[in-house]
Amino acid sequence: MDPARILPLWKRLSGLPGGRWVFSRLIGFAVPYSGSIRARVVELSPGHAVLDLPDRRRVRNHLRSVHAMALCNLGELASGLAMLSGLPPHLRGIVTNIGTSYEKKARGTLRATCTCPPFEGDFDTGEDQTLQVRAILCDAAGEQVAVTTVSWLIGPRPQTATQ
């Protein structure tokens, strides 16, 4: 999905009945692996994303808690939506590293919250730069269960030849 279309699509759909569900499914369709966990986008604004992950069998492990990779996937998706929704149109971001620290067993509906630092003058140099974006994952009681840190390589969007 074109990053420039994410925020306008959210603004158009999020206020409609069932619009957040439709938006979440569209993101899942555009990014099939991330869509496999069926997270729900709850909030989205430039540089900020909040997603919920319902606890259900498809995301559980043999210990009856949410699987480590489902947690990592949720954190990366929150990071990507926050980062892409605040990304100026002349820049692009590519994931170069993901790490998740697991602090306790994750059970019940989980919430991932991510706020991306603003893209200010440092990113207008024309050089690629690394941006660390953290997503905090909490359970329904508000206890932190995991933290996902994603390294994004931010640089100029490649120019397409027009002739």
Describe the structure in your own words.
With 163 residues, this protein is α+β, with helices and mostly antiparallel strands. It is built from four helices and six strands, in the order H-H-H-E-E-H-E-E-E-E. The protein has helices at 3-13, 19-30, 32-35, 68-86, and strands at 40-45, 48-53, 91-102, 110-115, 129-138, 144-156. The chain has a six-stranded antiparallel sheet with strand order 1-2-4-5-6-3. A hairpin with a 5-residue loop joins strand 5 and strand 6. The protein is globular and about 50 Å long. The two termini are 25 Å apart. The mean pLDDT is 90.
- Strands side by side in the biggest sheet: 1-2-4-5-6-3
Sheet of most strands: 6 strands, antiparallel
How would you describe the shape?
globular
Poorly predicted sequence stretches spanning 5 or more consecutive residues: none
Number of strands: 6
Binned strand content? 25-35%
Output the structural class.
alpha+beta
* Average predicted local confidence, pLDDT: 90
Termini Cα gap: 25 Å
Q: How many individual helices?
A: 4
The helical percent reads 25-40%
Write the element-wise H/E pattern from the N-terminal end onward: HHHEEHEEEE
Specify Rg, calculated over alpha carbons: 16 Å
